[in-house]
Amino acid sequence: MTTLLTVEGLKVDFPTRTGVVEAVRGVSFTLGKERLGIVGESGSGKSQTGRAIMGLTPPSARISAERLDFDGIDLLDAPARQRRELRGKRIAMILQDPKYSLNPVMSIGRQIVETLRTHEKVSAAEARDRALGMLEAVQIREAGRVFDLHPHEVSGGMGQRAMIAMMLIAGPELLIADEPTSALDVTVQLDILRILDRLVIDRGMGLIFISHDLRLVSSFCNRVIVMYAGRIVEELPASELAHAEHPYTRGLLNCMPKIGENRHPLPMLDRKPEWAL
Amino acid sequence: MGAVSAALTIEGLRVIYDEHHALKGVSLEVRKGESYGLVGESGSGKSTLLRAIAGLAPVAGGEIAVDGERLGTGRDKAFYRKVQMVFQDPYGSLHPRHTVDRLLLEPLAIHGFADIEKRIIRALDEVGLGSGFRFRYSHQLSGGQRQRVAIARALILEPSILLLDEPTSALDASVQAEVLNLLEQVRGDRGLSFLMVSHDLAIVTHMCERLMVMQSGEEVERLSAADLAARRVTKDYTRNLLTASAGFVRTDEAAGHSAGL
Q: How many Cα atoms within 13 Å fall on the side-chain side of residue B254?
């Protein structure tokens, strides 16, 4: 398997009035055309890792890495212009809540067309056809009608499908999905995951799936990275989750209530200071 | 209905927002000391039901009774001594410019309690925060600590019924376990009745003895947590929810694709 992305010793620091907040403290992994899950709780640095790869780290932050390499391009040294060309074209990102990630004053169709025409020289008519085709690919039944709707006129599930359509229309090689289904109802969640799964497999993309939900991620990905306090505490094949070794991973799995289990009180996660070292 | 054993009785409750029928005649009964769950997806009316009980939604018909006493349109002080609510988002439900002390003091002052000092310290103790948190602002607290403050504020009036609207869905899994354990413990200590809303079947089966599944403002079915755990369900909608909550399962066709990756 060819390596698409290499991350070595990635650090993201936020200088604040009260000192430096180290959000990511030396994260290393490689990614090929596979599905990699990054799991952690709030503040673990999982989202900042994804944003650093995408180039969406706020300007106030300090970002450093021994290597941050996408298909031979050094992302940290790349000029802003080159990163703009990569973003949306070769690396795409899906965010948590379509209510906030879609442009509220632009119809869904126009947003998808805009993405396409930013990256490819196509006629307006062809762009429209491809956008409609993409809406159908994410299983929107009346693509023609949805094309002209604004984000507030569609449900959360429909909005997230539109978001996926917009992100995939330029044919990216790497897709970063940051909690793509956390704002959705459980039944809709599965529809979205099925669509994402199919498209990622059919198009041979690399996927980084960032989530707080360890079990969901392990059912969807090949490999899982568990993050705690800005570092990777464990990396394991998704199928081996039951045999996780790190007490944090085990604690995280244990503390969730399960249907048909009778554990009162629930086991609590006993955080050890040495995990954060 | 209205038997002594019922803490809360709801009969044919309807709520209409403008033209939208958010609740279309829902009935349920929560026994004294019982924990009752409401499950459904967004728009099912589960939160509206809680808000209607608390007097925060426009009731268009039906009856609500607490301890056998029928409620009118208004809610008096005596009602809020008996029934308190904990909201979903601890970032939105605590006043950002009040200290924890003032947040806890307000309900005590409104209801004319005397030994305020003692009660505040005891309330903080009970939710596991300690008096060190007393003079902090909510932005100085984590999500789990905020939800503990919200629970302390609800408990400080010594209510007999707690309305819980997704009390842990804004929290991390490990913090969720702590808050769920805390809720179970105070329920046991004080013999409280819970009416708890959640979209998560696992949480409801863990916390509640009986539950109602709701969809588009109506009851789908009522069942016991044991029935749900054993998958003794009669409606397809409930079955779908159960399947969905089991997580993502790759179909054979797609699995074939992925094997070739």
A: 17
Would you write out chain A's pLDDT as a tens digit for each of its 277 residues?
689 999 999 999 999 999 999 999 999 999 998 999 999 988 899 999 999 999 999 999 999 999 999 999 999 999 999 999 999 999 999 988 888 899 999 999 999 999 999 999 999 999 999 999 999 989 888 899 999 999 999 888 899 999 999 999 999 999 999 999 888 888 888 888 888 888 888 888 999 999 998 888 888 899 999 999 999 999 999 989 888 999 999 998 888 888 888 888 888 888 888 888 7
The domains of chain B are located at 34-45+74-245
Subunit contact A187:B41, Cβ cutoff 8 A = yes
Architecture category of domain B34-45+74-245 in CATH: 3-Layer(aba) Sandwich (3.40)
Examine residue A38 and state whether it is found in any structural domain, yes or no: yes
Q: Which residue has the tokens 């969901």?
A: A216
Print the domain residue range for A46.
1-90+210-277
Query: Do the domain assignments include residue A238?
Result: yes
Residue A114 lies in a domain: no
When CB atoms are compared, the residue of A34, A198, A256 closest to B261 is A34
Torsion of CA B65, B157, B130, B118, to 10 degrees: -160
H helix runs in chain A, sequence order: 46-54, 80-86, 98-101, 108-119, 124-137, 143-147, 156-168, 186-203, 214-220, 247-254
Structural domain tally of chain A? Answer: 1
| Assigned domain for A226 exists | yes
pTM greater than 0.80 (yes/no): yes
Q: Are B181 and A212 within 8 A, CB to CB?
A: no
> Which one of A42, A187, A190 has the shortest CB-CB distance to B248?
A190
CB contacts of A34 in chain B (<8 Å) are 261
Whether A251 sits inside 8 A of B257 (CB atoms) is: no
Q: Which of A193, A198, A255, A262 to mutate to test the interface with B (most CBs of B within 10 A)?
A: A255
